């Protein structure tokens, strides 16, 4: 059984007097692509911000590779790769310069960064982009560099908050294909990261190993996409053979 690298235990959080997240529990294992689903305002971004140690839980805790977000924030951040909705790159530097800069922030040597770029480039399609300034790259290309930046230090947990936001269909597919490739082609002797991705797009969620559904700050369901579809009542399936995760999503919103 794969090691659990991300664990949320009895987590509660409020913005002032407004409760936002209620008694959340979830686990993500090494090599798992885990989808965090829910409508806008469900609390997905707040949960990822808490996982990153940028907010403090009211009660409960989050563990990243056994390190507590509450008590060991520096150790947690060393274990994390973060990809937010907005691109986190210097657009007037080249893609390669951004990656060397990011690696330097984690204390990596030039040789280590060079090796890591060589590993990531073919998986993310960066070979012809490294010498180009980020400002001249398409949105999808910028996102690939952003993912490489988040992976440069070999994090044990990768968090992505709606990474395809604003991208066209082709670029969205490229991002998800790259995530699958990264988990499949982890170098020998290394443990693949646990990957958590938030999305409200069900075609993306369908490619995850497991998903959880967040509604009004509560996790109301967790399982595989196949289990989700099996749960959908027959009366909610317009054409049974072609029922999609989107049908299930809409059904859960109505419950």
Descriptive report:
By secondary structure, the protein is of the alpha/beta class. It has 2 domains: 154 residues, 3-Layer(aba) Sandwich (Rossmann fold), CATH 3.40.50.300; 32 residues, no CATH class. The chain has a 6-stranded mixed sheet with strand order 6-7-8-3-9-10, with helices on both faces. It has a 4-stranded antiparallel sheet with strand order 2-1-4-5, with helices on one face. α6 links the parallel β7 and β8. The longest helix is centred in the last third of the chain and has 16 residues. The two termini are 34 Å apart. The mean pLDDT is 92.
List the keywords:
255 residues, alpha/beta, Rossmann fold, 2 domains, six-stranded mixed β-sheet, four-stranded antiparallel β-sheet, 9 helices, globular
Number of beta strands = 10
Classification by helices and strands: alpha/beta
- What percentage of residues falls in helices of 4 or more residues? 25-40%
Largest sheet: 6 strands, mixed
| CATH-defined topology of the largest domain | Rossmann fold
Text of the CATH class of the largest domain: Alpha Beta
What number is the mean pLDDT? Answer: 92
Q: What is the number of helices?
A: 9
In short:
Helix 3 runs parallel beside helix 5, helix 4 (110-124) packs across helix 5 (139-151) and helix 5 (139-151) runs parallel beside helix 6.
